[in-house]
Predict the 3D structure of the following.
Amino acid sequence: MADEIQKFKVSIDGITIEVDPGTTILNAARKIGGDIVPPAMCYYSKLEGSGGKCRTCLVKVSKGSEKDPRPMPKLVASCRTTVMDGMEVMNITSPEVLDARKGVVEMLLINHPLDCPVCDQAGECKLQDLSYEHGTEQTRYEFERRSFERIDIGDKIQLHMNRCILCYRCVYTANQLTGKREHGIIYRGDHAEISTFIENALDNDFIGNVIDVCPVGALTDKTFRFKNRVWFTKPVDAHRDCPSCSGKVTLWYKGTDVIRVTGRKDEYDEVDEFICNTCRFEKKHTDDWVLEHPTDVSDQSVIASNHYHAFNPPPVIKEDAQLKEANIEQLARSEKLK
Amino acid sequence: MGRKLLLEHIHVPGINTLAVYREKGGYRAVEKALKTMSPDDVLEEVKKSGLRGRGGAGFPTGMKWSFLAKPEGVPRYLVCNGDESEPGTFKDRFLMTHIPHALIEGMIVSSYALGAKTSYIYIRGEMMPQIRIIENAIQEAKAAGLLGKNILGSGYDLEIYVQPGGGAYICGEETALLESLEGKRGNPRIKPPFPAVAGLYGCPTVVNNVESIAAVVPIVNDGGEEYAKIGIERSTGTKLISASGNLVKPGVYEIEMGLPVEEFIYSDEYCGGIANGKKLKAVVAGGSSVPILPANLITKTIQGNPRLMTYESLADGGFVSGTAMGSGGFIAFDEDQCIVRNTWNYTRFYRHESCGQCSPCREGTGWMEKLLYRIETGTGNLEDIDLLWDIQRRIEGNTICPLGDAAAWPVAAAIRHFRDEFEWHIMNPQEAQTRNYGLAQYADPLEPVVS
């Protein structure tokens, strides 16, 4: 067939996949899934123009394409580099990439306050995951970290610049969902900060989404602030008839109380659909919603300690009768919950 | 006496006015190109000339022009990069101040070759006098029928606009410049797409340095082959060098490519040697971004050949023992200068000018600055040197635009060539506050030891 789109063959860490032309290396890797997916802190598939800034997704292109097999001279940002037919990409198989990534993580952390114990994002923070996987145990930074005053952007959102990694996701969200250019970056370099137009309160109906897109705890929901640790809450998918958005959300329960409402996030922590402020901040009662099912949480996530998946007893290394007994008991208990 | 192409009439009084400029043969190139040549002929001459971008990267201008996409019905733009802000470089300012019409003439010819109907000259905001001068020159040219509709009856229309920048170093990077020109925050774009495909307002765009555009004039006047006769191998023509530092005669010099560096520093025609009878310690040969070299490596390559002022010869030895032509900001340091302090000063500049878009550059430049400040003020540790090395290594090549590399290279080169000076600073913090390390083994020739 003439109008059939020709697919490009690309291999990432030796795994070959066929993708449509125009696909980025990152998205091709996400199609394969697993360990070879480069981490991405600033790229957000729903936001046009995002990506390329954090440099955590750097990969090595060891073969440019079938036509031009020369390797690319520098590491490239996989989120913004499109695949070519016959391209060969090295991610976790390249020591150069891993070293560069380690460097980037170190740079991201030198000015981060590491206040995870009091941060609302802890447990669902991309920077936590990233530094756990690619960071070093100790910092080599011996200077004062930069600090800012907390700023309220409207009455529902708080900006804590100390934690910001300047991924620009919220800037793109505000620009693309709200039409007005009120939310942006001021200053340059390591003194750059996120700001609204002369500390304007952002009152757009979709501005709450900046909380969802923030990979760290820089933008937090004031209605949820210090309410609970995320791993003590139980996410449940729910929907309602909303006049302004799709109304498809995740409710975060603590006991019988809905303490937070967010968009539904996929395995890369990207929301499926943006939700409106009414759904996010106003509707915090089970009666407002039609419940669907518990949210599918990866068992790698700390949130999964609420056992939505089948209970997997930890591997018993030593023969320990007492522990074995306890495991059986716990297994029986978790079976009942299903 | 070397040949002068750009600054030939620089000492003629009133050369900044259209009347005197035309009297001295100005705007011949416009007449020749528009009346007797097709745009492709001009492009062919520029290709033949072997002209390389004078802004720093040294990319062949003819090749850059030939990459310009030419879709139907889409305007094309020529943008002149006058955001000269590299520390140690001031040649474009000199050119724009004294012979503004050379730039205007080059703009008309280049725009004609590229088929641009609207061209912009982006000038750094601090250069307000130069902005006024260029605007006056545009008015003069317009009144003489050299700009506007139907130039010299050839049917070619061109408008040139001057855009003052906000004074950010990063806006000298071509995509950041385009963003700034569009009225946005001057953040470099992620490439691809390159400006030749989607540049200003998404249209194909060529961004050239002031000097590159001015150099098109003699190329069109005398032909590309004539231009290519000057210079050595792939470094053709003449180059403006902004010489500064501890020299007897600092200033802007037009040199023929291939001039030995030693001659440039010591001959009376050029810089006239090191000021106050001191000795040369180090040279930054192409603006603050290029690696600094000690005196013995700048005059001779590692093989012992004399180092010449060409793109190839300056880069001979790669990063280990070479440097780069860069934008031609030639800074000489005598024996009294402190390399640690200088490196800190450069890093302070890059920290201040980093746009903050990508993390290695945003965080790394600040970190390096703090470490260097600590070493300079006498509270550093020996491990800091290795840490600095590690940071610069991880910035270089991992950023969106070349600012990260530009911040990393001076630090790398200073540590590579002057490590003992860094160590001396750390080991003798008290002494380092009162005197400088001096020449040590970098002098060329070395002083014979008197026993």
In short: The interface with chain A takes residues 168, 170, 185, 190, 351-360, 362-367, 370, 387, 390, 393-395, 397-400 of chain B (CB under 8 Å). Residues 52 and 58 of chain B are 5 Å apart (CA to CA). Chain B is about 45% helix and 10% strand. The domain at 339-442 of chain B is CATH 1.20.1440.230 (de novo design (two linked rop proteins)).
